[in-house]
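Appendix B. Raw example, untouched.
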Amino acid sequence: AIFAFLWLTFTKSKSKGHIRPPIKPLLLVRSILQVGSIVLFFHSIQNAPLAEAVMLFASNALFVVLFSALLLREPIGFKIIATVIVGFCGVYIVLDPDLQNFADSHLIYALLSSIVFAFYLLATRTLGRLYKPGTMLCVDGLVGLIITIIVLFSSSVLIDQPLHLSKIEYKSFLFLVALGIIGTVSALLVI
């Protein structure tokens, strides 16, 4: 959030009469979709076989094609439809799911994460015409920060333990800064 805020603060906007364009609700929904996708994916890799969870999440590209045709009315040809069908068949063959085992193994969370991430990518494409990447990144960071703070404080109240910060070592702090920079750059590449 800090790196995104700095990016937004020190870049110039070319909007007419506005320092920044107004924030539309879809921009906030997009950020919530991103957070939801991350939470679902982390839950799946904690509780399901890693290879299968990652395979299901990687199928988000197939959902993007499917949803872009259905929701954005983008034309898709026979080759793309055939590719999506073959892709879904490939995922099915690799996973060899038994529906009962699929639900029991928490793989449903990886599938939901893939679907939610596909909606996030569609929202990114739609909003990319209206907003600069830095603006979308800043909103993502701030929404993620707000949701994280809410979860931390609410879980602290629910488990009846006070929230306290421990002393952080210099190397750990540098590691966190490096993760922040890498995360910011990778998010800009997606946007």
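End of appendix B.
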